[in-house]
What we know:
This protein has helices at 174-191, 209-218, 247-259, 278-307, 344-350, 353-373, 380-386, 398-401, 425-432, 436-443, and strands at 4-10, 19-28, 32-39, 45-50, 55-60, 63-65, 79-87, 91-98, 102-109, 118-126, 139-141, 147-149, 151-157, 167-168, 172-173, 195-199, 223-230, 241-245, 267-268, 271-272, 319-321, 333-340, 414-418, 455-459. It contains ten helices and 24 strands.
Amino acid sequence: xxxxxxxxxxxxxxxxxxxxxxxxxxxxxxxxxxxxxxxxxxxxxxxxxxxxxxxxxxxxxxxxxxxxxxxxxxxxxxxxxxxxxxxxxxxxxxxxxxxxxxxxxxxxxxxxxxxxxxxxxxxxxxxxxxxxxxxxxxxxxxxxxxxxxxxxxxxxxxxxxxxxxxxxxxxxxxxxxxxxxxxxxxxxxxxxxxxxxxxxxxxxxxxxxxxxxxxxxxxxxxxxxxxxxxxxxxxxxxxxxxxxxxxxxxxxxxxxxxxxxxxxxxxxxxxxxxxxxxxxxxxxxxxxxxxxxxxxxxxxxxxxxxxxxxxxxxxxxxxxxxxxxxxxxxxxxxxxxxxxxxxxxxxxxxxxxxxxxxxxxxxxxxxxxxxxxxxxxxxxxxxxxxxxxxxxxxxxxxxxxxxxxxxxxxxxxxxxxxxxxxxxxxxxxxxxxxxxxxxxxxxxxxxxxxxxxxxxxxxxx
Length: 461
């Protein structure tokens, strides 16, 4: 028996307006198939599904197609074929032959600078696939018989699918460049003992900004790096950059998390917010984001130093910005701009396989350097650092970044903090999650007084 399921009716404008379909593009991601229809005008549409065989039917009211839809490339997607025809002499009916039962959803997009025309987006979500983000973390068996986990690095290739990112000379797309660099970084991390990469985006499809961070958190990532290629209106702009979440962005994100009831039972640094008073929950969030932000700056500085060996730098220090993709309360996160794709010289380099490998190696070296000195507890690298054993590495540059090959020591490392207006020693200690006595002892302070501009050594372990 045939089953008909009416899903959605969306009204853009009066039905008498005639609209044309100029083009259709299809992308496949792990959990859905996305179709984007380019329209001359907004229109009314209906979507429903049929089974035996599985089909999705889209009726576009008072519309016609200017493109032969049967010729649209659907290879590698859940759509086997696209058919179209007239319905009621005025409407356009599009039938999608699909290879499994799918749940359709749709939404309109208004014209913007990049796409100066109306669009209709149709997402066909998988019903049967479980949305597992990552396989269970690989347990590494050691001679002692204890299982120690890898350090998980979430690699986010920016943009994708309908969002190409910046477009350089010769139609060089940012989304393709950064995915290529991300895959090279993934290869390096797979070869390195103690690390496990997790690719947020594995192909040419779009993922929402907050969804990218959410995927990394579900994968229990220890670090999140989002890779991009910058653009500017003047082609002379050049250089690589590294961005960390700004203090203002961190504060606003902490407030958003506190206000979001869905996050109440979430874990921030292993602590549930569900049973905490607002002021305590806000303090825990602030502490977590400050600590992760400080770690991000340290990792970013290392990556920037390594990138400076293969490219010009736009700025010599880690910059701050309130990028949405960096707003994770319990995970260090960075956004890396590998160069200006709007600069003809840098665009040519970024499009080359050899340069992509060099850039991936620079990012890898920065990550590797930090986590071999500051490995998370319970990891293979942490156990080897605690035992004084130098971790095995496939990185030929490791000697230059690991105390020149000297044996490892369990002696605590430290970072440098510059005192700002309004700071107190107790406040710095709380934010850094270390005892005041340790800061006083490390800096040989005779009192708790500090002054603006003073450089303090803060223990990091």
